[in-house]
Amino acid sequence: RFGGRGRYLWWLVFFLMIRRPPISTQSRSSAASDVYKRQGLVCTVETYKDKVKVTFAKGASLDDPKGVFNASLDAGTRRAIDIHEDDVLDDPAFVELVKGAVALNER
Questions:
Q1: How far apart are the first and last CA of the chain?
Q2: pTM for the whole structure
Q3: Residues 41, 67, 95, 103: what is their CA dihedral angle, to the nearest 10 degrees?
C-alpha cells in the first residue's frame, strides 16, 4: 500500500509511539491518516499515492535549522514534511522537531 515510503511511515509511527511519556494516536475517519497528540496536537501523518506527509500543527513556531520542513511553508501556523519514495529523511533533525513540538505543547 505504501510502496517504498512504508519504511518511513513505520519508522515515524514507531518513534512517535515509544516516546516517554508516550504520544497518543488516533486514526481519522480517512484510513490513510493518523493524529498524534501529547497535551495537544503534535502532528498528523497522511499517506498519499506518491508520498507520506507529516504535518506539525505548530510547525511555524519550531526551530528547523536543518531545513527538514519542505511543505506548507507559507501556512500561518503549520509546517509539513513531504517524504517521497526516494527521499532521505534527516532522522536526528526529525527527532528534534518532534521533541520541540511536544515541548511547545507542554508550555
A1: 38
A2: 0.79
A3: -50
Phi, psi of 81 (to 5 degrees): -125, 120
* Cβ atoms < 10 Å from Cβ of 17: 12
pLDDT in tens, 24-60: 566 655 556 778 888 888 888 888 888 889 999 999 9
| CA atoms within a 13 Å half-sphere pointing along the CA-CB vector of 53 | 15
Return the DSSP state at 60: G
The answer to whether the beta carbons of residues 105 and 42 sit under 8 Å apart is yes
Cell of 10: 513505520
Cell triple for 70: 519542505
